[in-house]
Design brief:
This protein is flat. The chain is mostly helical and about 80 residues long. The protein is about 50% helix and about 0% strand. It has one domain. The N and C termini lie far apart (about 50 Å).
């Protein structure tokens, strides 16, 4: 029931509570930051069998590698 209430109240496709402290600390120190996430599961009743952690890690590694290439190239 709480999933439906939250989805109705805020139109989000992704939530990330883990990064909040990191962003808060960076903001307090006036440091630029970025969070790169990979989605392994949907917001639904917990069903770990439906999680796609391996695919999420693969996608994250692929994106992170390309992202770092762009960052490094921009600093040449």
């Amino acid at each position: 029931a709480s999933i439906q209430k939250t989805a109705k109240r805020v139109n989000v496709q992704l939530e990330s509570m883990e990064g909040a402290a990191f962003f808060y600390a960076c903001r307090q120190m006036d440091l630029p930051c970025v969070q790169i996430r990979a989605v392994s599961n949907y917001i639904e009743k917990r069903n770990r069998d439906a999680w796609k952690i391996g695919l999420a890690v693969k996608n994250l590694n692929t994106f992170a590698g390309e992202f770092l290439k762009v960052i490094l190239k921009s600093h040449e």
